[in-house]
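seq/struct pair 1
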Amino acid sequence: EIIDRLLDKNPLAIKIITSNILPTKDIFSLRDELQADFFNISEDDLSLFDNATDSHIDRKKSLYGSILYSYNMLLDNEQKAFEKLSLFPDGINMEDFKRLGQYSTDKDIKKNIISDKIIKKLQNKSLVEDSHGNIKLQSIIGRFAEKQLNKTEKQTEFFDSVFEYNYFIVDILTDLRLNGREKETIALNCFEQNQNNILKSIQYLEEYSATDEIKIKFLSYSSDLFILICSLVNFINITSKKITLFTDIELTAAKVIIETATYFNGNFDEAYKSLKELVHLGELNKLNHQSPIELIIIQSARCIYAMEGNQACVYKSVNGNSLDTKYSLNID
């Protein structure tokens, strides 16, 4: 009853706390520890839960305090595994998550950060959910974990492994969707289940050591898939914030990718106007079709120009060849 009152009868907070206390723990000592934690919770801490359905300040405090208490009970390597899992809001297969640590040159990460023992410990503390081998954090717990992650020095090797994992997903799904309607449906269903992982990967784009060309290809593949599942708002917002990472032709490509997504999100006039300022239809043939980056610009721009009534000009611009676009347009 004491804990119920202190945690404002918040079910998740109670579950987390009761999963972390020893049977011999003195209840009054626990109460004093939690009250001390609650006193030190700032408005900035509580802002993590601004999007939560329950906006009551006491319930926010009880939830944040319970997660903080549980986090502080973890060993250092357990905290790091917990933090890293925040990079996968849709969850990740347990074995895949363990393998990500093997890319690191840090022996401690390889041996200690991601292991069955640590993942089981996090599950026992009600911090991690397991659904048929797919592990994830609840949304609210994930926000806390990500905040802790961003307080520490970024480990490039691990972030690179995360990027390679997500790049592999969009690459293989892009190939799969081009092999008939049935496989396209499978590919898009799979992407829909992983879309928040991809968005999170884009959010940390500056942390990866991959070349700008690889990053642009990742954005292009992702954009195509987001267009096909009709889920573009978050992709546009997050990707737009990463424009400053690029220069020269990669910058143009990134902008074209965003305007293409904006167009398919329904902002036709705005996107078409911006696209014409970026790359005029008459300039497309001057671009190098052998360059992966310039080819992304060509394909995306031609698609929009064709949809805006320039089919004849687009058809002519490819010297009589069938139009190679990403969205299966029929141009007669």
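seq/struct pair 2
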Amino acid sequence: AEITSDRVGWHKDNFLLPQTINGVRFEKELQGYGAKGEREKELRLLKEVIEEGSLLGIGYLASVGAMLIEPLEVRNFIIFLTGTSGSGKTTTSALGLSLLGDYNTLLKGMNLTAVGLEILLKKNRDVLVVLDELNTAKDLTQAINVIYHFHQGIGRVRANTRLNLRDVAEYRGILMLTAENDLNQILEQSDSIVRGALRRVLSFEYTEKIEREWIEKVYETISNNYGNLIKEIVDYIKASKEEIKINYKAYVKELSEKYGFGDGLEMYLAVLLTALEILGNLYNLNIGIMIANLIRLAKAYKEEIKDELNLTREKIEERITQFVLDNKQN
């Protein structure tokens, strides 16, 4: 008999997607997953993007990285893409989603309610989830709260009409957010604590516009060719779990000791580098330029948030003194 699944993602040693498992039908809310077109055209684009070291490749790495959260036993995290219109933020996320299916259906905006967002994250486990244009959210504080709950892996505790507690939603994977403003600007507009949110995010800034011809080529390819590689990637992960764990730990160690990453950034970046290595091994890609670009961008973000993440004793004392003075005046 055919089984109906209310979510995608890992279930024991199976990965629930239409392309990776037979005899399973997926609920209507999970439309968009599936394959179309030619494997070779999809692979040719992936190879071109990764070997050029293009920022657009972050989408592919996030998509594969989301599948590694469970086998690596690491925390969920958020990738934040910021930059002006035409810089490639949405194209990056569309490329990541194209590994799974039709990006048009899978790409979500910020018009979801809090409950709708919880349902989306609960049903889409172990896959990349994209929320485009965070700055258009009606309630920014609610949007930032999503970062907290997603990172912790659980939704808010809610009661039903009879005051019984509902099942708490469980999340697992990588959430990608895009916005024209950088994260600090968005956090300043909300009621959230800046440092808390920054510890859960790996942010990449897109500073240059991408040529229109290249963008058009990308969209033409992924509109007609998608979801053909994901089974090969799942099979590779299933067959190489121990090797993948060893590589991940080596990346964490190197990023921490050689490059000075900490506060969780070394783990998030190591997930993406491990995903890159999987694609490199599976498809015989030259990944050197992509590794260098990823580390360069992450180092820029580390420097940008250093003051917020590393409160020195002097800064803490200064803030306490200011707090006391403010309250004396009141």
